[in-house]
Specification:
Number of domains of chain A: 1
Largest sheet of chain A: none
Structural class of chain A: mainly alpha
Helix content of chain B: 55-70%
Strand content of chain B: under 5%
Number of strands of chain B: 4
Structural class of chain B: mainly alpha
Radius of gyration of chain A: 62 Å
Number of helices of chain B: 6
Shape of chain B: globular
Oligomer: heterodimer
Order of helices and strands of chain B: EEEEHHHHHH
Number of helices of chain A: 2
Distance between the termini of chain A: 185 Å
Helix content of chain A: over 70%
Strand order of the largest sheet of chain B: 1-4
Distance between the termini of chain B: 54 Å
Order of helices and strands of chain A: HH
């Protein structure tokens, strides 16, 4: 069994030490720092990306809140304007209605006055017309032409 | 039929000696060097043109790193981060040694007990040293289990000491035996395939399945060695 050949032991142990130490120094001074540096760089990159993402999200949330408050503000504003518009419009409608009513009343008044005046005028004329008609009737009945004064007199006399 | 143990033989490629001790550069040393080079290229190459979104190679590198980092976090906790490089080196070295050894005509240096023992001693020595550095003399309390009745201590303490000392032995034998047995079995079935001619299709199927199984064992044993090292280290860092 070659494993038990003691004469090879010093050489094997010597080269084991040389190779092991060589590998140890290569790994601890070159490979391990390099690999851990790569892993750290990746970790840092990931963290910075995650941080960036979360700041973006915060910004987006801020914008959303801002948008919502603006929207709410706008709603309140719109409601106020609507109320204002409604009140002003109804006031205008009321005043216009009143104006119209006044005008109509005025016209009615004027018309009534005219009617009254006309009635009086007509009433006055009626007398003359009646006399004339009576004169006509009398003329046909009696064949004599009566003067209005006569008629007035007779009537007063009868 | 070829000797199934022939694959474990060590040949010097470059004879060297230090103070009369033979430290020749052998096929074992060659594949240790290959393992070191492969591990370095795999880990450094993966992140040399690093991207935010990794490609396949970079993902594999990062996953290997993350695998060991997780293992340490789970078994030791945050205090274990300091020893990451050492545990990572241990894992990569054994992993590469086992996996490269699965390639035909290569040499599996983890199939030699002296190598696995050396690795186990690194793990064990590290755990013990860290234990004494962190807790000083108080580290000896690791041999006294919590809640044990006083009159049991004369029996329990020697058992605990024995189990503590056998840690590197069990660690090294587990890895060595797994690797050697697997490779020997593969070689035996491969030998049958050659010897049986047309009937060799049977052992060929077996050795194909065994190869898949051995790749699993190669990865698993590297993992087992590492997690046990982490558990021992946890004992030294957090005592109990």
């Amino acid at each position: 069994m070659p494993q038990l050949d003691i004469s090879t032991f010093p050489s094997q142990l010597f080269w084991l030490m040389v190779c092991f130490l060589a590998l140890y120094f290569i790994l601890s001074f070159v490979a391990v720092p390099k690999i851990s540096h790569v892993l750290e760089a990746r970790q840092d990159a990931l963290e910075s990306k995650i941080n960036k993402a979360s700041t973006y999200r915060e910004q987006a949330e801020g914008l959303l809140a801002e948008y919502e408050s603006t929207l709410a503000q706008a709603r309140v504003d719109a409601q106020q304007r609507y109320k204002l518009a409604i009140t002003s419009a109804s006031a205008q409608i009321a005043s216009q209605q009143k104006d119209l009513l006044d005008k109509l009343n005025n016209k009615l008044h004027i018309a009534e006055q005219e009617l009254y005046r006309t009635r009086i005028e007509v009433g006055a004329q009626m007398h003359a017309v009646a006399i004339e008609v009576a004169i006509g009737i009398l003329k046909k009945l009696t064949g004599r032409t009566y003067s209005p004064t006569e008629l007035n007199y007779e009537r007063e006399g009868a | 039929m070829s000797d199934p143990l022939h694959q474990f033989e060590i040949h010097p490629l470059l004879p060297l000696s230090l103070d009369g001790v033979n430290i020749s550069f052998t096929n074992s040393s060659l594949f240790m060097t290959v393992a070191v080079a492969t591990a370095s290229i795999f880990l450094i190459g993966g992140v040399s043109r690093s991207k935010l979104i990794p490609d396949r190679w970079q993902s594999m590198t990062e996953m290997t790193y993350g695998f060991i980092a997780n293992l340490i976090d789970e078994t030791i906790g945050l205090k274990g981060r300091k020893y990451f490089s050492l545990i990572f080196t241990l894992f990569m070295f054994i992993f590469m040694g086992n996996v490269i050894g699965m390639i035909p005509y290569t040499f599996t240096f983890t199939s030699h007990i002296i190598v696995t023992f050396g690795l186990a001693m690194i793990a064990f020595g590290m755990a013990t040293l860290i234990g004494f550095m962190r807790h000083g003399f108080h580290y000896f309390s690791i041999f006294v289990p919590k809640g044990a009745p006083l009159y049991m201590l004369p029996i329990i303490v020697p058992i605990e000491i024995l189990s503590y000392i056998s840690r590197p032995i069990s660690l090294s034998i587990r890895l060595f035996a797994n690797m050697m047995a697997g490779h020997t079995m593969l070689k035996v079935f491969a030998g049958f395939t050659v010897a049986l001619g047309i009937l060799g299709i049977g052992p060929l199927v077996v050795s194909t399945l065994l190869t898949a199984f051995e790749i699993l064992v190669a990865v698993l044993q590297a993992y087992v060695f590492t997690i046990l090292t982490c558990i021992y280290l946890n004992d030294s860092i957090n005592l109990h």
